[in-house]
């Protein structure tokens, strides 16, 4: 067996070899397709009518694992007529009244405008006082309290009828109001501004202080807790920062050298989940920003709005990619959001989603839901195709692999036809070149040589692109494992029984896969190719770097032995075989380092193990090259025995001291890795 990780992620296009369908593979596994309806309804009859519109053809077009469909008809969105003289490029912000979606304010370089009917009519606000407005906000706790930044700074306590001059920090470019106290404001400076970058006012902007005179971080977004006005969370150029004392001191809760450019938004209802949408995806915190969970959404979500009801839904995106996301306690689902694009901004009220406003280069669009005397909110409705039992070898292999991924606590991979084609093409290359012509194997078993029969690409990533796998960010591929069995179930179990071939299939970053096998009178070969990219569903995991273990904590029925054969070698060449079933760690989101490790049985007896990479320091390739650490018992484990593993180390500097337990099955349970041809 030989794993392959192709590190060079190239996005350039090239003239691919002829696309060849996999031999004997005519059935593609149906993807789960989800349809969502986010709307208010007069009755269940209206809901039923809406669901009737979700035809199979429409669901196929909006399949979660596809990119958004280009839209030309944005109904039920309608273009709002802007105030006379206002151009789209002059709009700096639109503010929705927290209690009434039809009451909106439009901040522009031509002044401040107010509409009481969702933009049907407009009136100019404080013409002389506010000749142009760069920032405007309404206090959620007192909707008569308005703040606006023009050539000066102003506050209104009567809904904009009269305005009083206040002050603002000289270099500030943005501010936010504490949800529980309209007198508390926080302001911050923008990119490229030197000096102190964070300020606080406790009297409605009349005076300002600098809570920390040494704080100079550039901030992209600031959110104040809806429970405590002293708790502040900020997205910065260095990661996510949190203060619990009104900005006097700060702690980095999630580091990111590239920063998080996007939006921080608290839910307005318990449990007050905090979301951060950014150029690479979506993060959330369920404890006020102390810890963070990563979605691995792989979609831009720099602009978004939240449902004001406990349905945990988001609408948003970036440019032409618009998404509707439903989040659960541990999972999320996504489908395209059919709204006007390209998206520049999106707004809605805090207490209802009667009206949604979207800003594009063409102007402001609105979507008004049916008029109701009583607010009835219908959470997302999900339709899922009935489960189809796997029938092809590729489906069988993916289904079986996902069982082990579930054991490990990582998202399932999705069958991708391009990965199936690439795997089958490499199988064909092996079969066609299985004679004694060694020049066909200059690059090893995972490589192909141009000019040889059935050549489709030198490396796995080349072959996947040639087969039609998307080649631009955030899509990428190139992971590959091979076997010489000719059976999808046995191949998967063989890969999971090893070291290097285990960490590739269990890597949570791998989201798509394809499998194929073939044989002739000279050889038999199995190939599984992996890729990554946006999927229609996923799981929330720790946003901090962490170690992924297998066997996972609490797993039972674990095999007692492994035959020990793998290429490259995972144990010393002269080691006695069989050995015990391996325990592995894979570093997720950063480099893994282990400083202490031990395995004990339920009688507290220490288990003698081969450590990889420690016992393979002279090998050209070892577990360190795969960002993994392995413990391989030198003899088979005992049947029906509970084992405990304790490991101390770090992932990308985040320290851990973890304990895992697993229980073996009967004495016949074993892991067979490969045929002698691949030793």
Set down the secondary structure blueprint.
Layout: E1 39-40, H1 44-52, H2 56-61, E2 78-79, E3 91-97, E4 100-108, E5 111-115, E6 123-125, E7 135-139, E8 142-149, E9 153-156, E10 164-166, E11 172-177, E12 185-189, E13 198-201, E14 219-224, E15 232-236, E16 239-243, E17 251-255, E18 262-266, E19 274-278, E20 281-285, E21 293-294, E22 303-306, E23 313-318, E24 321-327, E25 331-336, E26 345-348, E27 355-360, E28 363-368, E29 377-378, H3 393-408, E30 414-415, H4 417-432, H5 460-466, E31 476-483, H6 488-496, H7 500-503, E32 512-519, E33 524-532, E34 537-539, E35 541-542, E36 546-550, E37 555-558, E38 561-562, E39 579-580, E40 583-588, E41 592-601, E42 609-612, E43 628-633, E44 642-651, E45 654-664, E46 670-671
Parallel strand pairs: 30-32, 37-45, 38-46
Antiparallel strand pairs: 1-29, 2-28, 3-4, 4-5, 5-6, 7-8, 8-9, 9-10, 11-12, 12-13, 14-15, 15-16, 16-17, 18-19, 19-20, 20-21, 21-35, 22-23, 23-24, 24-25, 25-34, 26-27, 27-28, 31-33, 32-33, 36-40, 38-39, 40-43, 41-44, 42-43, 44-45
Quick overview of this protein structure:
This protein is mainly β. It is 10% helix and 35% strand.
What does this molecule look like?
There is one protein chain. The chain has 679 residues and is mainly beta. Among the domains are: 393-532, CAP (Pathogenesis-related Protein p14a, 3-Layer(aba) Sandwich); 548-671, Immunoglobulin-like (Sandwich), CATH 2.60.40.3780. α4 crosses α5 (460-466).
């Amino acid at each position: 067996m030989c794993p392959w990780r192709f590190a060079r992620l190239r996005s350039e296009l090239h003239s691919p070899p002829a696309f060849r369908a996999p031999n004997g593979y005519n059935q593609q596994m149906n993807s789960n397709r989800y349809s969502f309806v986010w709307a208010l309804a007069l009755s269940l009859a209206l809901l039923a009518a809406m669901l009737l519109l979700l035809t199979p053809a429409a669901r196929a077009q909006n399949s979660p694992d596809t990119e958004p469909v280009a839209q030309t008809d944005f109904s039920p969105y309608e273009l709002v007529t802007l105030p006379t003289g206002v151009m789209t490029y002059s709009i700096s912000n639109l503010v929705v009244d927290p209690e009434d979606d039809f009451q909106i304010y439009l901040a522009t370089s031509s002044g401040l405008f107010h509409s009481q009917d969702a933009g049907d009519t407009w009136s100019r606000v404080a013409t002389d006082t506010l000749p142009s407005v760069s920032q405007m906000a309404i206090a959620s706790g007192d909707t008569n309290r308005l703040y606006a930044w023009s050539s000066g700074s102003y506050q209104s306590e009567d809904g904009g009828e009269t305005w009083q001059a206040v002050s603002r920090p000289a270099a500030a470019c943005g501010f936010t109001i504490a949800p529980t106290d309209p007198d508390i404001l926080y302001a911050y400076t923008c990119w490229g501004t030197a000096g102190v970058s964070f300020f606080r006012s406790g009297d409605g902007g009349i005076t300002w202080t600098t809570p920390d005179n040494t704080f100079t971080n550039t901030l992209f977004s600031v959110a104040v807790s809806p429970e405590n006005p002293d708790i502040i969370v900020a997205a910065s150029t260095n990661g996510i920062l949190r203060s619990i004392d009104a900005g006097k001191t700060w702690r980095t809760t999630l580091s990111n050298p590239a920063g998080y450019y996007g939006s921080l938004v608290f839910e307005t209802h318990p449990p007050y989940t905090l979301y951060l949408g950014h150029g690479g995806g979506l993060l959330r915190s369920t404890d006020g920003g102390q810890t963070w969970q990563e979605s691995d959404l792989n979609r831009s979500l720099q602009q978004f709005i939240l449902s004001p009801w406990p349905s945990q839904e988001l609408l948003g995106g970036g440019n032409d990619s618009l998404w509707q996301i439903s989040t659960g306690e541990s999972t999320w689902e996504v489908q395209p959001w059919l709204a006007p694009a390209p998206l520049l901004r999106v707004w809605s009220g805090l207490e209802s989603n009667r009206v949604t406003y979207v800003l594009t280069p063409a102007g402001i669009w609105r979507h008004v839901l049916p008029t109701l005397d009583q607010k009835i909110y219908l959470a997302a409705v999900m339709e899922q195709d009935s489960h189809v039992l796997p029938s092809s070898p590729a489906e069988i292999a993916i289904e079986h692999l996902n069982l082990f991924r579930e054991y490990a606590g990582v998202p399932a991979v999705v069958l991708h036809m391009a990965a199936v084609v690439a795997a089958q093409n490499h199988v064909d290359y092996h079969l066609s070149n299985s004679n004694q012509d060694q020049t066909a194997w200059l690059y090893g078993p995972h490589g192909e040589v141009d000019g040889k029969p059935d050549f489709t690409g030198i490396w796995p990533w080349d072959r996947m692109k040639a087969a039609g796998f998307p080649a631009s960010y955030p899509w990428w591929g190139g992971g590959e494992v091979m076997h010489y069995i000719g059976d999808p179930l046995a191949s998967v179990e063989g890969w999971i029984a090893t070291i290097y071939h285990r960490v590739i299939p269990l890597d949570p970053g791998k989201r798509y896969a394809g499998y194929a096998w073939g044989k002739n009178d000279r050889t038999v070969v199995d190939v599984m190719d992996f890729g990554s990219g946006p999927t229609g569903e996923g799981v929330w995991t720790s946003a901090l770097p962490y170690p992924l273990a297998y066997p996972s904590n609490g797993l039972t029925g674990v095999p007692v032995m492994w035959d020990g054969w793998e290429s490259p070698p995972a144990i010393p060449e002269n080691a006695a075989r069989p050995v015990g079933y391996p325990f592995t760690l894979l570093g997720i989101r950063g480099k893994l380092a282990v400083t202490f490790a031990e395995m004990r049985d339920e009688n507290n007896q220490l288990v003698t193990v081969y450590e990889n990479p420690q016992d393979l320091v002279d090998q050209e390739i070892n577990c360190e090259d795969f960002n993994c650490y392995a413990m391989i018992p030198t003899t088979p484990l005992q049947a029906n025995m509970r084992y405990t593993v304790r490991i101390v180390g770090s992932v990308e500097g985040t320290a851990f001291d973890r304990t895992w337990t697993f229980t073996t099955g009967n004495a016949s349970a074993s892991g067979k890795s490969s045929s002698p041809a691949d030793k």
